[in-house]
Amino acid sequence: MCYGRYAVGVNVVVCVCSISQAIAEVRRLRPQRSSTPRSTSIYCMNLFLDQVLAYLLMSAASAAASHNHLWAARFGEDQFSRKVSVAVWLSFLGFLALSANALISMANLFRRIDMPN
């Protein structure tokens, strides 16, 4: 199994999903003619996607990091392994952003749910 392809594939999926989710949120913030309230299922889907994408991103970053460590141990540290290390750190920062987004989605979801008296 090629860890590099897995990491790149996961990063592409996370990027596409995050961009589409951001576009949907920006469209939601624009004033609309008909102010129909959003259903709770959209908030649940956002929370689910944020969590799944964050876990996938960490999985891909850890696979790339372990493979990079083996590569550096066998062939020495070179420019490629340094680039992979930077990519792993950027994936970690992306994970932190997705985690923050999951917290925001959870707050939005719980704000929509009415608490019984």
Describe the structure.
This is CASP-like protein. There is one protein chain. The protein has three helices and no strands. The longest helix has 36 residues, at 40-75. It has helices at residues 3-29, 40-75, 79-112. It is mainly α.
Strand count, sense and barrel status of the largest sheet are: none
Query: What is the structural class?
Result: mainly alpha
Number of strands: 0
Radius of gyration: 19 Å
Distance between the termini: 54 Å
Mean pLDDT: 82
Pick out the low-confidence regions.
none
Outline type: elongated
Number of domains: 1
Q: Which percent range fits the helix content? A: over 70%
Q: How are helices and strands ordered from N to C?
A: HHH
Number of helices: 3
**Beta-strand content bin:** under 5%
Summarize the structure.
The chain is mostly helical and 117 residues long. It has helices at residues 3-29, 40-75, 79-112.
What is the fold's blueprint, element by element?
Elements: H1 3-29, H2 40-75, H3 79-112
Main features:
transmembrane helix; mainly alpha; 117 residues; CASP-like protein; 3 helices; CASP_dom; elongated; transmembrane
